[in-house]
Design a protein that fits this description.
Distance between the termini: 30 Å
Largest sheet: 4 strands, mixed
Strand order of the largest sheet: 3-2-1-4
Number of domains: 2
Strand content: 5-15%
Shape: globular
Order of helices and strands: EEEHEHHHHHH
Helix content: 25-40%
Length: about 270
Amino acid sequence: MQTPPVLKVRLVHAEPGQRVVQASAWQGNSCLGSSLGEAAGAEEAEERAIERLQQRLAATAPAAASEPAPAPAANGAVRHPVIRQSPTPTTPPPPPVAEDTAPEPQAPPQPSLFSATEASPPVEPLPIGGTVEPPADPEDWSDELAELDVQLQRIGWDRNQEAHYLQRAFGHPSRNRLTAYADLVSYLRCLRNLSPGSDPNSAPVPLRRKDLLEQSDQLLRSLQWDASRGRELLEQNFQLSSRQQLSDEQLLQFNMLLEESLMSAAGA
């Protein structure tokens, strides 16, 4: 008898009055799909994400041949094991960060996440009337870096606590390795929303544009939409013609609209 999928949930975005939770279903090491839930509180957002995911799984799963279905819960929903992913990093915490005594080796410059070329599959809705150039990154980041220090002082984090948070959010413990302006801005935006005394091991991490783009690619493939359909949804809801023109928050909303379209198509 095949065991039911395991549901994993994690908080992916938080700001005053808004929480966004991602729920994903796993069978062994295979991800069967994921959905987002948005609400004012994390618990309600989690419930919405799980409900949307279960609807998708029920609509897309092939009929099981002579296998008993998982036992339903009291409300009729299928009961799946749920794992709430700890925000604590899976790798050991980085060692205490000493004061810089020499310039840290810089990682090779990474292309900006707002660059015109993406590594994701070619499902990007094409701009109307020519290529849309993303805004160029500013050469001077001194204002943003100065505000980082102000925000860290307000929250009460020392360098070691900041290193723990950066390790969780970006996979490295040093802000010197934030080579994309978009990452710096996302980091700063998250710090602005944190309360003094926040725990760096549980504070919400920034939205990662790469993850959002990969999720929208997956949804567009599931919908089997061509470029014109994706562009139509962008124009109707954002008055824009390309995902490149969306902010991270708008891209998150775009993904949620795609999920709604997918569930509507499955229920038709």
